Amino acid sequence: MSKYKILFQISGSIAAYKSAYLISKLVQNDFDVQTVASRSALKFIGRATLEGLTSKPVLTDQFQTGHMMAHINLIKWADMIVLAPASANTINKMANGIADNLITSLFLAYNFDKPYLIAPAMNSNMYEHPATQSSIKKLKSWGINILPVQSGYLACGDYGSGKMLEPDMIFEHIIASINKLKTGQDKKVLITSGATREKIDDVRFITNISTGKTASTIANHLIKQGISVIFLHSQGSILPESNCELIEFVSYADLKQKLFNLIESEDFDFVIHCAAVSDYFVEKIELGNSFINTGELLKIPSKFDSVKLYLAPTEKLIDKIKSLSRNKKVKLVSFKFSGAQKQEDSLSETLELFRKAGSDFVVLNHIKDRNKNIQNNFLIIDKEQKTISASTAEELAQQLTKIILQGL
Ligand SMILES: Cc1cc2nc3c(=O)[nH]c(=O)nc-3n(C[C@H](O)[C@H](O)[C@H](O)COP(=O)(O)O)c2cc1C
């Protein structure tokens, strides 16, 4: 099989040195890499490094003898185009159809038939500048895959957003894009994860033992297969290592609002509702002989002999997901964490999730299979009661990936 061909472009940013590592990683993983560098990029990284890593001359000049049609030929040659780092200048030129160097000319010759991945890298002000933000928005709307930036220490000495995504992360995105091409599918999945926190006062809350481990393992797996994931997670829970859109929630009410907003405004192919949502919230508090409403006191004083919390049941979010979803064909995966004594009782607990919530799949797991707060032994059940077992979260993630890509 011929090697996968990557046109790797570098523009003028201090982060250019990080691209040498990424290019080396691509070459070591058997990619055929051709580099193109802007004139400014060559002030940050040497031709010798790039040529040494790829065994091919670096192209810079549109009018280079012997490479006069490079702006057309290279774009046809490549299976995927990467621009990392992408400077503010290059991004803004691309979004405005300017073609005054090889990188920007290649972009105008590109007909959007293969993945084009951009990793911006710049100072926060340059990144947040309205010109750059509107260019990024425009390029995204054309289908260009603009990777997120990171926040952190920037070369200019500032601390803020605009830092290029770490090369290992960019590598993962490249692999995910290839997997997406291989499966020929463009799936979008919403995963909820972690435990809700129900407020008692400003310093105390009721929560549960969910850590977000199972959901983040599933997310990592899906992302690596090229599936787009939005990860709606509780505060402080485990996050996926692979890159995806992260949205944080705190309480039941917060999760409800964010979850419903997402499913009403975006088309998801699957919703995997793994979050451990509180069944009750603190409605009122009895302190001695008087009642107060939750949140009325910053901190309940320690002087009381008895404090009673009155809990009221929350509405089941799972029951609303299908009916509120913009995509009426969305598939719903719900989780049942059972404490029942007998297997048949655990199984019958899942029936409600099919009947009432319209789940397409239920993942059954049991409290007795939780060891050091790590959950094992999952049973995936479909509407026809066909089952697949998975002994670890990893195996569960693999099975769910298969279901999403191929069906059960
Ligand atoms: C030391 C130094 C560091 C720079 N770092 C960045 C950067 O990280 N991101 C950026 O967009 N521009 C940066 N610039 C400015 C660009 O190099 C400049 O806008 C240049 O014209 C970009 O050219 P190009 O887009 O054709 O590569 C830097 C300039 C200097 C001198």
Query: Taking Cα atoms only, what radius of gyration do you get, to the nearest Å?
Result: 25 Å
| Class by alpha and beta content | alpha/beta
Domain count, please report it.
Answer: 3
Low-confidence sequence ranges: none
From the coordinates shown, what is the CATH architecture of the largest domain?
Answer: 3-Layer(aba) Sandwich
Strand order of the largest sheet: 12-11-8-13-17-18-21-22
Can you put this structure into words, describing what you see?
The protein contains 14 helices and 22 strands. By secondary structure, the protein is of the alpha/beta class. It has 3 domains: 179 residues, Flavin prenyltransferase-like (Rossmann fold, 3-Layer(aba) Sandwich); 185 residues, 3-Layer(aba) Sandwich (Rossmann fold); 30 residues, no CATH class. Helix 1 runs parallel beside helix 3, helix 4 packs across helix 6 and helix 10 packs across helix 14. The two termini are 30 Å apart. It binds flavin mononucleotide. Flavin mononucleotide binds next to helix 5.
Secondary-structure map:
Blueprint: E1 5-10, H1 16-28, E2 32-37, H2 41-44, H3 47-54, H4 70-77, E3 80-86, H5 88-95, H6 102-108, E4 116-120, H7 124-128, H8 130-141, E5 145-146, E6 150-153, E7 159-163, H9 167-183, E8 188-193, E9 198-199, E10 205-206, H10 213-224, E11 228-234, E12 245-249, H11 252-265, E13 270-273, E14 280-287, E15 290-293, E16 307-313, H12 318-324, E17 331-338, H13 343-355, E18 361-366, E19 370-371, E20 374-375, E21 378-382, E22 387-390, H14 393-406
Parallel strand pairs: 1-2, 1-3, 3-4, 4-5, 8-11, 8-13, 11-12, 13-17, 17-18
Antiparallel strand pairs: 6-7, 9-10, 14-15, 14-16, 18-21, 19-20, 21-22
The structure holds flavin mononucleotide.
